[in-house]
Amino acid sequence: PSKAGAGLEPPPVFTDSRMPKKEPVAEIFESVSDGLKQLYRSKIRPIEEAYKFGEFYSPYMNDSDFDAKPMVLLLGQYSVGKTSFIKYLLGRDFPGAHIGPEPTTDRFIAVMHGQEDKTTPGNALAVSANMPFRGLEMFGNGFLSKFQGAQLDSPLLHHVTLIDTPGVLSGEKQRIGRTYSFTEVCAWFASRADVILLLFDAHKLDISDEFKEAIEALKGHDDKIRVVLNKADAVDSQKLLRIYGALMWSLGKVIKTPECMRVYIGSFWDQPLRGSEWSRQLFEMEMRDLLTDLKNVPKNAAVRKVNELVKRVRLAKAHAYIVGHLKKEMPSYFGAQKAQAKLLANIEEHFLKVHRAHSLPVGDFPDVAKFRAVMEGHDLTKFPKLDTKAIAAME
Predict the structure, then answer these.
(1) What is the CA radius of gyration of the chain?
(2) Quick check: 153 and 115 in contact, CB under 8 A?
(3) Contact between residue 128 and residue 265 where contact means Cβ atoms under 8 Å apart
(4) Rounded to whole angstroms, how far apart are CA atoms 264 and 226?
(5) Are 260 and 248 in contact (CB under 8 A)?
(6) pTM score, whole prediction
(7) 3-class state of residue 151 by DSSP
(8) pLDDT tens readout for residues 6-42
(9) Residue 287: which of 73, 71, 88 has the closest Cα?
(10) What is the pLDDT of residues 139-149, one digit of tens each?
(11) 88 with 269: CB under 8 angstroms?
């Protein structure tokens, strides 16, 4: 019996040493993007900032990158029907759209959902906190003056954002006039896109130098690429078979993967299909398959975001190990400049040492020439030492 005025004693706790210990409870988030945001902010971004990952690869990510709707990027040479394709998907025109046989779209256009039809200049989009285009500021005013947003109310745009691109011309005639690197901008959009559509015209299959460079910049995103052979109803069945074979041959020389690309054949515009009954049925089935593929994009968006962040973490991990190794090789007091020049001159050897020491996959290492060029602008002595605990936490 307890003494008067004293509180009740707590009941005795019986413990069984055989009972398993409690596992740590995982945090619960409202959505996948909320969880990824929290992980990125707390575990990944500190390492990226410490080893200046954003200057060697893509810029640091913001909350808007995780909250963004899935993105579909359209690439192709001029007059292959990119803008008509978007119009076909939306069932109507969009602000800023120009269609014609000559090169009409001279800018990147982000076609997004909005309550009313309007266009937004690129500079305004790049500084908007709720838009996923903050990273485009790195390309400067030369690019942002050629970038705009088109907003309209369409059911499809509730779920995806479409990116229309300038048509690629052959030879030097357009490259001379560009005030930004077309391939670098394409690579930036490709890393954030969920699907990349390469459009070809059945009448002209040539792949120009700039388009070839743009396709090569998509390396690492092969799983996102879909090929569309447009305006196919304007040629007869026999020619179409030959055109399809020629397209596969051309693509095989540019996209060097053992897998065969998925090609959708059709005519994506608002006019009725031409040709025989057999070919019309084929086009209808192919066009239906592509639309189904695009409808599945929002369903797979969460998995894609996880996949892209995992890719980024693998690159950040390899980058941190490389910088940590180079930092360790530097002298403590004198001759730092000469030592850095010597290290960068033999960078391939040091990549190999890091690869062997930490069993990192070769595919996670950066391009040698690009890494060397960026690192030449930095002082290796100012980087922190390798923080293995932080890297383990990031993993």
Answers:
(1) 26
(2) yes
(3) no
(4) 8
(5) yes
(6) 0.76
(7) strand
(8) 445 555 544 444 445 545 445 666 678 888 888 898 9
(9) 88
(10) 889 899 999 99
(11) yes
